[in-house]
Amino acid sequence: MNCRHCGTSLHHVFADLGHCPPSNSMLTQKQLDEPEQHYPLKIYVCESCFLVQIGEVKKAVEIFGDEYTYFSSYSTSWLQHAERYVDMMMQRFGYTSDSLVVEVASNDGYLLQYFHGYGIPVLGIDPTANTARMAAQRGVKTRVNFFTTNLAQEMAAEGQQTDLLIANNVLAHVPDINDFVTGLPLLLKPQGVVTLEFPHLLNLVQQCQFDTIYHEHFSYLSLTTVNRIFASKGLTVFDVEELPTHGGSLRVFARHTADDTKPVSGAVKELLARERSEGMDTVAYYQNFQPRIDEVRANFLEFLLKQKRLGRRVVGYGAAAKGNTLLNYCGIQGTDLMTFVVDASPHKQNKYLPGSHIPVLHPDMIQVERPDYVVVLPWNIREEVSERFAAISEWGGQFVVAIPALEIFSYTPATADVVHI
Rounded to whole angstroms, how far apart are CA atoms 172 and 351? Predict the structure, then answer.
């Protein structure tokens, strides 16, 4: 097995989460009685380019099929994040009605709708037909396809080169990272800009965010590695921002290497130097991560078993990939330790989580059932969730997150009282 970027043989294991079903493959009740496919979830680090990557994978076309269940617009905080980005880009680069903005992995039009609101021509690219249908309702035309070098060549030949090419939280999802990045400059006008957002590998390691590891994520990225891959394909990273999203992400700005109108910022140089000082360009940095994962699992299982013995009810919020990685690595099956999970997306309600087979219900069931604890599985939106369900304090209910360490907390308007276990 070789590195997807440089071809070096992979030997160094970063994390091994056993065998799990794909984290977004929700099940119907009928499917509960059918065999469920599990795939190895083992992550390696390349000793040459330090790309952290999954080993054996499920085919991308099977993961991102016609009925993918993740819709970006069901998170209000994510919509706010997208709107702030659009406002910033409009102010910084001054796009007009003569510009074209293209987003790869545009999902349900959650972001491009705000450029559309400015009167900027937009085009989405996404492989899932159901999200594309929802995008169309927002005025966002979408090409239903995977972004590849071939598609970029085809679109460029059609005169669809773009002033701004956006690829948020998709670079980690592509099985052939070289082909994907090769296509970016082909679709970009000579002085165009590419922006990408992706979870920062530095935060994954520091905060033990192992639940961001799942089959839909083929790669786990540092600026050091992204900068190297981009340079090999004729792109230069000229700016970078650190974001709080997804537990800590990077927003990277890139241009054609031949475009000298956008100098490389001090932020790029500083972050590259910080990653070097942390040792991210050494194999040693990626060792000893597994014991930290196992400690999180042990503490979470101990919490659930304790509540079971005490007769307390535990439910979850968020039928997210993060939560499914956690639940499956903990070996949780059925409703014995977690009665149900609620989710705001109607596309997930009345289905079952992959692997654990926990039912997914409407959020109103928290008020109806009055559980003792609500585990916020997508911990990156814990503030949004705890504010929305603040009423659980009326019956003594509390919130829980498992990562980076087990926390039990109660929401108050000013702050959250947190107990570290």
Answer: 27
Q: Is the pTM of this model over 0.90?
A: no
In CATH terms, the fold of domain 290-420 is Rossmann fold (3.40.50)
Give the residue from 203, 206, 285 showing the smallest Cα distance to 243.
203
The predicted-structure confidence for 197-210, as pLDDT tens digits, reads as follows: 999 999 999 999 99
DSSP class per residue in 152-163:
HHHHHHTT--EE
Which of 305, 359, 363 has the alpha carbon at shortest distance from 331? 305
- 402-407 long-range contacts (CB < 8 A, ≥24 apart) are 402/296, 402/299, 402/300, 402/303, 402/326, 402/375, 403/207, 403/208, 403/209, 403/210, 403/211, 403/296, 403/326, 403/379, 404/207, 404/208, 404/209, 404/296, 405/296, 405/299, 406/296, 406/299, 406/300, 406/303
Q: Collapsing DSSP states into helix, strand and coil, what is residue 327?
A: helix
Please give the structure tokens belonging to residue 194. 């590419």
Q: Which residues are paired to 53 by β-bridges? A: 44, 219
Tokens 């001054």 belong to 94
* C-alpha–C-alpha distance, residues 194 and 206, integer Å: 28
Compute how many other C-beta atoms are within 10 angstroms of the C-beta atom of residue 419.
Answer: 11
Domain extents in the chain: 290-420
What 3-state DSSP class applies to 371? Answer: coil
- For the record, the structure tokens of 275 come out as 């990653």
Pairing of β 407-411 and β 416-420: antiparallel
In order of 38, 83, 86, 112, the CA distances from 115 in angstroms are 40, 9, 6, 5
| 415 Cβ contact partners less than 8 Å away, ≥ 6 residues apart | none
Rounded mean pLDDT of 403-411?
Answer: 94
Q: Identify the burial level of 22 via C-beta atoms within 10 angstroms of its C-beta, where 0-12 means exposed, 13-18 middle and 19 or more buried.
A: buried
The two beta strands, 249-256 and 235-243, are: antiparallel
pLDDT digits (tens, 9 = 90+) for 141-153: 999 999 999 999 9
